[in-house]
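Methods — Computational structure assignment.
A single polypeptide chain was analysed. Its primary sequence is given first, followed by the predicted tertiary structure written as structure tokens.
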Amino acid sequence: MRKIAVFSNMYPSEKHPTFGIFVKNQVDLLRSKGLDVEVTAIDDPSKGKVNAIRKYAFWFLKSLGYMLKNRKSISVTHAHYAFPTGYISLLGKKWLGLPYVVTVHGGDIDKMATKSERIASMTKEILQQASAVIVVGERLKRDVIEQFGVREELVHTMSMGVDTQIFKPLPKVDMRDELNISQTEKMILFVGNLIEAKGVLDLVDAYKVVHDAYPNTSLHLIGSDKDEQFMKTFAARVQMDDVHISHHAPLSQIEIAKWLSAADVFVLPSHHEGFGLVALEAMATGTPVVATNVGGLSYLLDNDAGILVEAKNSDSLADGIIQALNEGQTDRKPNMQCKVAQHTYDVIAERLQTIYDSVAKGRKTDE
């Protein structure tokens, strides 16, 4: 195996350490297994039309230049997100004969491909021309096969994996002491971007019901406030509810693992979700998970590995949280551990290397 060129429109930096952290984690994993991986990515999440044009144009040209310069040493390119990232790999195949793998994360199918017929058509070509398509959830597998006409034998369902060296059970008492959380309160935790699509308002409404039933509960939300207008709505909703809700800025994965271990229940009330990696990370710490029955979460929490509730339904969400609080943290552990074992880094690394090897063997070259 020679060089793997990874392209991504999301990648963390010192200034933005959580932006596309799952891509970096996979790159680090592959490098730890001895693979030669080079990354060309966007590490700036800032918005604005002018800024977007500038950063995407620079990234696009840099990526093409990298492939041209290293075309003889690159075995496979790997694009994270079908569009726009996959278009770079598509051009690499058309112009330089470089085979590629594309990972579909969800938003590129659920949202990006629905923006226009042109983007949908480009997404279809990107997926159909790929030597392998990786999807992070079973629903996405069905979508790329049925909606975009990709041959089933080319589609591989595989999450980004969970780092069980970081996400593992930690002593709850110690973690609560460190985080200054009361040992007696029932702690509910959410981790993710504070946006409407993550069901944050549904969670606030549900928490009001839960708090009435369990006055000693607390709700902590960890994540970025990317949408200024939504945060105004969120703040108004929180003020209307006479309960204590804490919002924390994004944290490192090591710190997130401490919060997950300190929690009584982890909640992910997304309206749509490709996989729901943070739910898997919560399971790896031994914390019960309540999540909406959407996308990859439907499969991740099936077989009693977690509690599935109806999306966009705060009453159903409240019922699920109360059920989890009543059950405690031991009832579902065997099922949770079974799910985690299917998504460890070692399992993911082995599967990725197998895909890369298979794709690289099919490369046509004049060397």
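Note: The CA atoms of residues 5 and 303 lie 37 Å apart.
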